[in-house]
Fold each of these.
Amino acid sequence: MHPAASIILFTTASGLGYGLLFVLGIAAACGLLPPNTLFGVLTIALALGTVSIGLLSSTFHLGHPERAWRAVTQWRSSWLSREGVLAILVYGPAFYFGAGWILFDQELYAWRAISFTLAVGAIATVFCTAMIYASLKSIPRWNNQWVSAVYLSLSLMTGALWFVAIWAFFFPVPTALTTILLVLIIVAYACKYCYWRYIENAPVVSTAESATGLGSKGKTRLLEPPHTGRNYLLEEMGYKVARKHANKLRVICMFSAFGVPIACYVFIYFADGYYVTVLAVTAAVLGQVGVTIERWLFFAEAEHVVMLYYGKDQIHG
Amino acid sequence: MTSLPEEQSKTRLGLVIDLDICVGCHACAVNCKEWNSSGYHAPMTDKDPYGHDPLGVWFNRIHTFEETSEAGQRTVHFPKSCLHCEDAPCVTVCPTGASYKRSEDGIVLVDESKCIGCKLCSWACPYGAREFDDDAGVMKKCTLCVDRIYNENLDSETRLPACVSTCPASARHFGDFADPNSNVSKLVKERGGYDLMPEMKCSPTNKYLPPRPRRDEQAAVGSSPRRLEEAKPEGGFLGWIDDLLSE
């Protein structure tokens, strides 16, 4: 599949933002957020900023952005519509949460309940994003349960990495928080590793024979394509990434998204002062870069079954 | 509304495509382009149409496959357009309600005034039936010539999809699959009409008829070449000539 920059930016930026809103919402519901105005302003600005930039960038690739409001109408059947509805609804509790934290008395039970709602809404939005892809049978590499696990765990990971990166400017990082981050990074890596294992070993889903109904006892191959030039389908679904580049990019992704952040957090156990801040910010930045590469690969490595009509032999899950 | 109709429609219009007699002339694709350039989904935008790198919207494309089996090889021309699926994934993924399946006859259409051009429907379709119009910013697809088949300004015999009416080999048939006695239902029954990619579970309405088995393997191109008949089957004059020339 063609890896459109706007969709990569949308899924990674909004993943960060909703992950951060989830962390903030849970921490608030548990009464663990420190009453520091500047810390509050910075984290909420980052969360809502990335979510809003992501949503705006997702409208850049639309043919008719001015009609985007229509996308909230079909939540009964469409994961894309559900994502849109939730994305808008989450702004409500997010503003209430932010106002409660920065301006008002945050010990109200109503505020804690709203914060919990925010956490649930944020993570549910990420799940809808994942299901847009995971529900497509025509792209077998996305049509599996690891896709939503990867989207959710990477969203939580990047949100938490940035939470600690900002936290470290204001407060010392408790050992428990470092441990939670290590667990989140390792879980995200495990999900991504399982996804890669799955697509390496997945069975054949469709073949040129099943696509044409020909060659039931033999082979079918494309003799002549329907046209000599380009077409929309080949540009959108026919994107090919050379295997060797895919493998190199996977290695880079693994180091950047998981390897470096794990190393940073192991060092944070032993570091103090400014070193902690430097390590936490390094982990967040490289983690974000790694997740962006991961998302590019997620699109570039996915194959659409329509390519069976354009010379592919078989498409694996 | 992009939920599929709750009940199967009483009429299910679609095509039967006979792979046995399609000659791959592309006339169906050309007439489709011609009709629809001024029809429901007009225009079918072409970019750089006379230049070196043309790119355009087509609802119907003719692929050519080579099938290899125990009986040898054969070339099969393979027209492909929207299959107007019963369980159309392109409809349910649409976030705006632009993509819909008509409850009265099962035709899958795009309401261009509601389409935001997110392209998700084209990702959801396993068959590549939808093509994005970069110029208009909306998705386009085969309409089963909805503006022809019900068009009372046309003679009743021309109220057929453009691809069907133009096919010089009669490889395309149009009819109602819900009626067991319709021409298309009978063809499917007699000839073993089948679905493309049944594993995608879209329940396509359009059916394909397989190429018929060869009647005479010896007559097939590529079998052993015919020899000249014996010149001297029983002697006589021809035998004498044969002897003379063989020396």
Amino acid sequence: MTEFTSDVDSHPDSPGQDSDDAVGYYVPGEPIADTKAPGGPISERWNTRKFEARLVNPANRRKLSVIMVGTGLAGASAAATLGEAGYVVKSFCYQDSPRRAHSIAAQGGINAAKNYKEDGDSVHRLFYDTVKGGDYRSRESNVYRLAEVSTNIIDQCVAQGVPFAREYGGLLDNRSFGGVQVSRTFYARGQTGQQLLIGAYQALERQVNAGTVTTYTRHEMLELIVVDGKARGIIARDMVTGEIETHLADVVVLASGGYGNVFYLSTNAMGCNVTATWRAHRKGAYMANPCYTQIHPTCIPVSGTHQSKLTLMSESLRNDGRIWVPKNKADCTKDPRDIPEEDRDYYLERIYPSFGNLVPRDIASRQAKNMCDEGRGVGPEVEGVRRGVYLDFADAIGRLGRDAVEDKYGNLFDMYARITGEDPYQVPMRIYPAVHYVMGGLWVDYDLQSTIPGLFVTGEANFSDHGANRLGASALMQGLADGYFVLPHTIRDYLADGPFEAVDPSHPAVVEARRSVEDRIEHFMTVQGTRSVDSYHRELGNIMWEYCGMERTEDGLKKAIDLIRGLRDDFWRNVKVLGSAATLNQSLEKAGRVADFFELGELMCIDALNRRESCGGHFRGESQTEDGEALRHDDQFAYVAAWEFAMDEGLGAQKPVLHKEDLTYTAIEMKQRSYK
Amino acid sequence: MTATAGTESDTTSDGMKLTLKIWRQANPETPGAMHTFHLEGVSPDMSFLEMLDVLNEQLNAEGEEPIAFDSDCREGICGMCGLMINGQAHGPEVTTTCQLHMRTFSDGDEITIEPWRADAFPVLKDLCVDRSSFDRIIQQGGYVSVNTGSAPEAHSIQVPKDAADRAFDVATCIGCGACVAACPNGSASLFMGAKITHLGELPQGQAERDARVVNMVGQHDHEGFGGCTNIGECTAACPKEIPLDVISQLNKDLRTAMRHGH
């Protein structure tokens, strides 16, 4: 991996960091650089790279094999496209069908710089909005490319039969989304992710029929195989029979999604996990900016300790709903309709008179937490605290009439009523923030290749495009951009070195990978402790949410690291997994995932501790303006924190190596945001 | 319960008591049987699957292996969950199992929980079934053949709004299999009809329209799904309310294709 780390001289202006909060928790390493992004004008870089990336003779493609892990937008689209090109593709997912990956739950839409509304949109404007939205912590070249290929995505999906919303003239409709001033979001009612994923899934199944792709459903990747420094396969478990399988290939692609479930409660699906990327991280792939987490302000609150997941409601609700909590703690258990106007605190309108209820996601989220921490939260008390604030439509219904409100928000009101049993037309909704997306992920270069040659990473699993905060309707864009239009071009440059010598399944690296998986499973099945996997996961989630959630501080993060290490040790000694490993065993599946979440959580806290600035979704209590707003420190932190896995044997804990990739902007000027 | 679950929420402190009769089956080869469990403290705010989570925590604490059941998104869109609840696919409401909440039930209720029952959906373990037959039906033509990069500019294809809306309505199928589980014949005609209608409504789907229906129906029959006798249980059980007339469209397309010599 030295080729990625030796390029020190090209960083003469490496920013100096005043603070070193994480001292003792990490080891400083050499800077890292993206050696694949071409120079020159930003608008020419992708064309240049596509031209320079070597081609693979069609006759040779069927001699080259690709393993794809994950079948969400980024995985299914890439598997289909590589199959169409003629490569031999194996596609893995833990669900019972590729169609169920969690991309399916995305509601809002997908951005593309089509400028169909002739409202001043362009590739450059989408690029600009995305970099700014990411709070200047993303890589300029990657974001420009994302904006550039966004238009191809819409063409492709329409041709597949994705039923986007249309106008009466038969042309595609667009809407404005996420606070931007142009209408560039394509949508299929509130189910855009579902329709895009079904499109990619159908393209994938078409290739299964064509014989280029083989799907392995109910299979979970448990280890990466690295032979002679290159990714050459995976160890997977057949989740029905329990069989441990070795799958070898010439290149491995991880499209395994995000790790929001480290918080236990999130809007992710139950099965979303970090295991694929974390196993790769342990084998040498750097993890970049792991602390960058997006917390969405308008989710349905927790109703009890039984809660298994959180449900997001479109933040468009904030356009007409007014957010408040009681002024007096004594009123928190009252029927909100009996609380007179003068006893209500419309806190966002009070603190941010110009933006009011429409402040950005992170600010709305943090203030809701502050109100509940003060003891003014509403709704059921869970573990001693009421975590909810009112989102009240009484004014909107009075002003617009019930029918107009129902037209705009009917499906969301129905969803809320189904989950809570309350009628939001009569009683104010209760909302609370929830973890929704992670911007951090495995470090990749412009080719989407990780620090392990032959290991590529796409979609939410990589870190490259969203910086410290993701804009609405851009997760779907990135997943499909990576899968349909970026990876298929960049991966061929790597595959052009082939055909590669086959790896023998008896190679020591393969045997070792397999044995480590078997040992781990054997451990979980023999501990026979007293606590369930879920109880550990829930406790880990509480620690992460409390100390590495909406607001992070030096003291809190250090405390969290201690708590996580203690809980992790207890987990390995005292977890209780029943049943057999030779059959479908959901406790065993969860045990492996939670084991990796522990290590990830520790690294997230170290990353958050090091970054003594506030940017995007990362808010450090020590770095705010007098008004309590996020304060960036571009002079010190305009870098990607790429962590290399390392253990401190004496400590029995991680002591990762920090490699910094400087972020330089040539096409955009860095600015501080303001919502006053 | 567990070491951490010392504090209960307001709503669960004196919850419902339920008697649960649940299908348990060790693996595809071993015959299964109904088992009875008693669960207390069930909050009306729990989802049906959260109620099963609580039961599983209780079983785990008692040293009995938790009950296997499928779920993923738990917000009604991925289609992974699906149980026969008191003999009804997804239970008594028009929604997915994950979106069914315990307030639908009453203190003292006895609830019967079984997996989907259909020859083409073999039981894997307890409440989990194998629905890969659905994927194999889609493989036979549930797509538009367009390679990445070969698509024309999006606005070169105009679609009348009513056709686009109709295509969307039927494209909302989540592939959960409730239609098959509810059908006395174990037919997947509603599932197939939804895909045939989605692509058949759109100009993009016309070129392969005949071959699509013939190949998908062929695979459907090969998988062991039964024939449709227009009973309508499928559409009554469908959490996405896919209308019965997609089966008319399916039959019409099949007749047309055969007339064209397929």
Amino acid sequence: MTSNLNLRHAIYWALFAGLLFAMPYLVSKGDLRTMIFALYVGIFAMSWDFLSGRTGYISFGHPFLIGIGAYATAILSYRFDVPVMFSIPLAVIITMVASTMFILPALRIKGSYFALVTLAFMELMYQLVQVIRPDLTGGTRGISGVETITRGAVNGFYLAAFLAFCVALFLWLLTRTRLGAAQSAIGMDEEALKGSGINATKLKLFTFVVSAAVAGLGGAFYVHYLGSIAPRAIFDINFVFTIIVAALLGGAGTITGPLFGAFFLTFLLEYLRPWLPGAERYLIYGGVALVLYMYQPKGMYAIAAKLRAGVMK
Amino acid sequence: MLQIIIQGLLLSGLYALIAVGFTLIFSVGRVLNLAYGAYLMLGGYAFFYVSQTLGMPKLLGVVAAVAVGVIAGLMKHRFIVKPLKGDMVPVEIATLILAVVLQSAVVLMFGDSSKILHSIIPGVVQVGTVSVPYSNVFAMIVSWTVLIALYLFIRKTHLGRAMQAVSMDQKGAAISGVNPDHVNMMVWGISGGLGALGGVFFASYTQLYPAMWVAPLIIAVAVVIVGGIGSIIGTLIVAHIIGFMEVMTTSLIAPELRGVFTMALIIIVLVVSPKGLFGREEIH
């Protein structure tokens, strides 16, 4: 599979990096802030895609992982004055450990049942965070005044872009290896995978842990960008909705697709703002997502591929 | 003690009603309807609109709510489930999106703030030292009536047997002259109506607010998973387990921990016994 890497891919990635680098010179500060948000959503969507888009184990509880990462670093740095350079890696490790809780049900159940367990995990976390040790988690109100790493939109953008780029490149390279090929086979036929002598359990564990590491990383940096965290902002079904829809509209199973899906969704929401200030936005945004999804469940990636095939003809 | 028993019984009856509509779809249509909670929201708001904004009789409000639920269910079947050919994962995701869309539609029409429903039947009845609102007693009686009627309908009537057949084996049912498509459509309608009816009661129990669909969805999921898909008796038993546990945690431990037990139960049961405690996948 490594032979799949060629010069063309290197050029694409270099162009992508260049575009991200040049972005602050091209767009306004306001758009840049929107992009920061889009990049974080993109990181979460890529994490979701690596787990669910590729293996078919649909997670409705991704905010569970993101929230653990975010809360871990927020508590460490705000309550215990741990420097950010230690608290973030620690948060990622904590998220990876916590993700192994997902693997337990995933060993026995699949499909809808798995989706439901992850949803239950998220709701459980939402309730527990408010009740258990509110002196640490800040209870219902959460924590505000968490140390921010960057000042200003440009720095924030570069940090988010760097993270998103690294995550995308890392996950993409991973899917190009033999490991990645085996991993996507989980989604196709798990029995056949076992039959070909691969340890499916280990492979699943690996997938969950990688996905969790990305989610935890994104969550941790996100909280240090926002400077605050609250249970309802994280463990929220609307947040699940944004992540999943971004991944699906971009193209499930494609890693880079979800990043573009996140940009599309975030900007759709942002550009509707001048015309529709209130709740109408979400109605249109959800409606567009639903229609697009019903029309092409494989996402924009498939639409782009179709268009390209049409042009080539 | 008496208070716990009475509140537990009232709440559990309601939970059983909410869960049974969900289990029907899961069993017959073989898909997880994540927009199920939205029926409750639609039902609650329809009741609010008819009885409190328009000032019509409350009974008419209930009828309107059920009608809205049935229509929503039928439309969901026609425009989402059928085009996606009942594929599990796409339907789950599309219904999740739909739930969010419906929530914002409700915000648009009724605003973000929560509303309090007038009780369906005003007044309270004294049982020993506990005072119980008539509305809640009414909700429990209606829930039980509906559940028993549904049970008899599925067991005794031709249509009910057709539903059983489809839940066991779509192709087999089609061969023996049942049109699975019709049955599916009907079940989506019934499920919508049940959900909306549950929503009227649920909203008068708590409050009417746009995000009210999440909590009952989780409860329905819990009851169905633990009780086993498609089992009406299992639904009834587990609704009582969950209802009583909730009332006991609320009154004996801490109100904030209300749902913790429910989530933990979902996780434990799914891991230990994925088919639920009374599990088969067909309705029975």
